What we know:
The chain is mainly α. 87% of the residues lie in helices and 0% in strands.
Amino acid sequence: MSRSLAAGADVVRRLGAATVAFVRRLGYSARFSVVAVAQTPAAFRRLPLTLREIYFAGVLSLIIILVSGLFIGMVLALQGYDVLNRYGADESLGILVALSLVRELGPVVAGLLFASRAGSAITAEIGLMKATEQLSAMEMMAVDPLARVVAPRFWGGVISMPLLAALFSTMGIYGAYLVGVKLIGIDAGAFWGNMQAAVDFRTDIVNGVIKSVVFGFAVSMIAVFEGFDAQPTAEGVSSATTRTVVASSLVILALDFVLTVFMFRGVA
């Protein structure tokens, strides 16, 4: 009996310690987010740094975004045509592809790819700066690391993400056009005309852009926080990079559900 009580007490103790550590880390991340956002004027005063981070997070992610969007659009066209053709609605392929990409697949898949490529790189870069004591050296020289290192990378990611999502959706639609019109033989006028008539700017395009901005904000904040909070060791930096990818992926999927509930409630 005493052993079982001791084991139960140990489990409760571990659970309590884990809960306290989680709440403490959550509070620290919330405070860090507020301070990082407050450094926005400093990021845009250092415009060359912010532009460099836009290039690093956005332009260097173009290849994986464009190639992935093209093939996802092609696969979506093949699968969609197989289903629509059963009901004689194959000319609605453009509607299916456009709404799927603009509303959901574009922002979500682009966000996941962005987190894997750019988010992990941002975390690793800041974590290595911490491990090599570059951040401490900045503080000794009266340079705020949040303004010099964190804010430009954060806003570089936030600005890049909507542009990448838009390019992803564009390439996906082009890939569907290649498969549906050029390969399968759907009428090009019906493909583009039905798409233009069905896609609403306010309901579909604007809401898709809002999703991509929210995902960019979340992924960029997670990336800079994990890098800034990483243990100054090789193992600590690698663990922080892994946490960035995992946490960003889960947050994107959760936010996608929440945003979809509010945005498309009652939309036919």
